[in-house]
Structures are given as structure tokens and as C-alpha cells.
Amino acid sequence: KKTILEVKDLKQHYPIKGGFFKRTIGHVKAVDGISFKILEGETMGLVGESGCGKSTAGRTILRLHDATDGTINFLGQDITKLKGKELREARKGFQMVFQDPYASLNPMQMVGDIVGEPIRNYYGKKMSEIEDEVKDLLNRVGLNEDAYYRYAHEFSGGQRQRIGIARALALKPKLIIADEPVSALDVSVQSQVLNIMDDLQKEFNLSYLFIAHDLSVVKHVSDYIGVMYLGHIVEQGPADEVYSNPQHPYTKALISAIPEIDPEKRKERIILKGDLPSPADPPTGCPFHTRCPVAKAECKTIKPRSVQVSERHFASCILLEEGSVVDDSVNH
Ligand code: SF4
Ligand code: MG
């Protein structure tokens, strides 16, 4: 399969300003060197608790912020530093679906205009010229054509998210970054929206980066999973492998928290002590050592390297390093 997106050692550090002169007194290491690939037609679930850097990673990849370091390669083109016209052109290929469909769509705007706006902006067409195209997009997300003439405020949360998805599709992207696209919706409509995303993926051979705070949400939609902790991807691999054979103690804890209906498969819940440390003052050594149930003394000082577990499965924990293939070049 073709690689759609390749992120290498991506960092996003924000300056912290303080004192009378608002000098830079430190940095928040929101994203601190992450690497991964998304293949054509695949969904990568990026999971972690709030504050782990997953949304910042998504926004940096979309070039809403400039990266502090690292590279973003999209469809074979290095887009890390693109500007102006070239960035605008590349942007057709990657779009975003936001978490809150109430906040992300103007309630007083006509749905046809919302969905058609990117086409109008990019191709300078009149709305009358693209009306059929926009109605077709509305159909594809399961909305009636006459939604075209109605206003966003007339729709429910689930319907608004469909409108957001139709808009994201308007320029025929290859990649959609969806930041918790269903977490603001009622449980009853979550699966409808996920099903639509799944249908569209098959139809257009789309790739998704699906950001979520909960492993149970991405379980059913992801081909590949990345688990983030304090700005790092501590484990990544094919979804079935990560769920059935997690390697990193943090992933093990997250998986133990997923409700399991089958009593035979139920594992003992691993409760993590303490809170997520501040990314402005991350722990030395392994970022997880302050909460890791199996930490050793050396975890405070040694930074774990990325260990290859199988072809596309990697985890960063010193307990895995002995006798394994260690990749020093990137933290996969
Ligand atoms: Fe836990 Fe140490 Fe492994 Fe980090 S390196 S996950 S602290 S055992
Ligand atoms: Mg977030």
C-alpha cells in the first residue's frame, strides 16, 4: 500500500512567557518527537489522555501551526515548511473534521454554502454551478438534498457532524484528520457517524487520522493505533496486535480499562497512580516512570528507545530492549 502521510520526529514546543518583560521562561513540549506512517485507505487511531499532545499533533500536521522540528511528508511532498500558494494547493489533499459540530459550523449559514465554500474558494465557481456537486455530497453523508437550503442551527449534533464531513470531502482529499469527531455526540448517534465515515473511506479510498481519548472508541475503526503519552508515541502497531498483545505498560493499563463483556477475556484493571505530569516540566528518563506500575530505578534516568516488536509494531520501554531490535534513528 502507498504511504499517504509520513511524520518523522515531529516536535511542537510552545514558549512559556513570564515575568514583567514576558520573556520566554520555558517550553511546553506538547509534541516531543513523534514518527509514524499512514497508508492509503487506512485509519490510524491516535489515543491518549487529554493533555498528551494528540490534538496539537493533528493541528501541526495540518499545518495550522508551524512545527518546531521534524518533517511532515504528504503524498511524497515535504509540506513541513510550505507557505502561501503552495501550502494552499497541498491543503486540498488533507482536511479536518472537528470535535464540536456546534462550534465549528456557523449556525446562521446555509448548509449549501457551508459545504460548497471550499469549492467556491478554490475553483472560483459560483454556487449555482456547484449546487449539484454539493447536493451529491449531502446525499453521501446521508442527508436529504433539501438540507441545502436550510441553516446549520436547524440540525442536530449528529446531522451537523455529517455537514462537517461533507464539507471536509468537498475538495476530494486523500486524508482526513478527525479530532474526536464523535465525542460531543449522543452515544446513540455516534455509531451512525462512524458508519458514514467508514462507508466514505471505502468509497473514496480515504485515509483517516482519528484522534480520541479512549481506546474503546478507536478499537472498531482503526487499522493501526498510536498510543500517546506526554508528547511521545509510546507504542504503535496494527490495531489487532496492540489490543491482543500490548507491550508498553501504559497501553496495558489503557486496555485493562476497556469494559469487556466476555468474562473469559476480562483482565484485571490496572489503575495508574498519580496524574499526568506537566508537559512544561516532563519527567527525566522514561516519560511514564512517575506512574508506571513496573518502573525500575533506571527508568528515572534512561530514555527508552523504540523496540520493534513485529513488522509494524513498536514500543518504547527499557524492559523490551534486551535482546531486541532497537531503532535508534527514530522513535517510530
Ligand atoms: Fe515503565 Fe520503565 Fe518501561 Fe518506562 S521504561 S514504561 S517506566 S518499565
Ligand atoms: Mg484534544
From TrEMBL:
Q: Which residues form the ABC transporter domain?
A: 5-255
Q: SMART domains, per this entry?
A: AAA
Quick check: keyword ATP-binding in the entry? yes
Q: Which PROSITE patterns match?
A: ABC_TRANSPORTER_1, ABC_TRANSPORTER_2
Give an example GO molecular function. Answer: ATP binding
Q: Which UniProt keywords apply?
A: ATP-binding, Nucleotide-binding, Transport
For this protein, the record's Pfam families field holds:
ABC_tran, oligo_HPY
Q: What InterPro entries does the annotation carry?
A: AAA+_ATPase, ABC_transp_ATP-bind, ABC_transporter-like_ATP-bd, ABC_transporter-like_CS, Oligopep_ABC_C, P-loop_NTPase
User: Hey, which family's this protein in?
Assistant: Belongs to the ABC transporter superfamily.
Matches recorded under PANTHER family: ABC TRANSPORTER, ATP-BINDING PROTEIN, TRANSPORT ATP-BINDING PROTEIN
**Protein name as catalogued:** Dipeptide ABC transporter ATP-binding protein
